[in-house]
Description:
Blueprint: E1 18-21, H1 30-35, E2 42-53, E3 56-63, H2 65-68, H3 74-77, H4 80-87, E4 91-93, H5 95-100, E5 108-112, E6 116-124, E7 132-137, H6 138-144, E8 151-155, H7 161-169, E9 177-180, H8 212-223
Parallel strand pairs: 3-7, 4-6
Antiparallel strand pairs: 1-8, 1-9, 2-3, 2-5, 2-8, 4-7, 5-6
Amino acid sequence: GQHGATLPPLGPLRQADLLVIAPATLPGRLRARIRALPGVTAAELLDAARIKVNGSYVAMLGVRPATFREYAEKPTAKSATLWQNVAAGGIAVSYLMGRQDKLSLTGTVSVTGSVPRRLPVAGFGTVGISGVDAVVSDSVARSLGLPVGNAIVISAPHARLSRLISDLRAQLPKGAQVVPLVAQAAEPGAAATAGSAGAISIPAGHGSGLSSAQTTAFLTAALSRAGK
């Protein structure tokens, strides 16, 4: 709570099932139309882009901390301090990024947006959207020049995602895509396909990606959590 912001109590946790993302601002009524689709229980508007943090491109989200935290992994969602710090202007980073960059919870990072800024580290946590390494408040995202409202995270835990994705694509403007964030079994009689969960193409920037050693370390860490 080093930055002193306060947030309302945590609401119900939500599974992040799909991500809609576009190069520019999505139509104003799209979120309401998405929420009306069968199986959708919640949808949250986000800002999303790749942006330089400490000299390397990372996928960043601009969010409303009080409501977006419901989509994060449970330990991260329950960390009131982390989200209070994000609301007060800090940047939450993934555990992997925090470890690789040797970041300190009492330190700052350099963020190169439309105006270069140094942001205090709000905390380390898994936000529930694969590939996203940094989260800031929507007000900080606007100050950095991220696209406004160009992404929507969707919770539809009981929907058949293949059908929902088809319905969504009929609603999306040109250039927008919908990406599954979870794997789901194929429908009876349908051939199983390789999952694309987490295969997110966030616009802007050309990061160098993970090295072979970093990929090995990442997969080793993932395997150590198997079954949890």
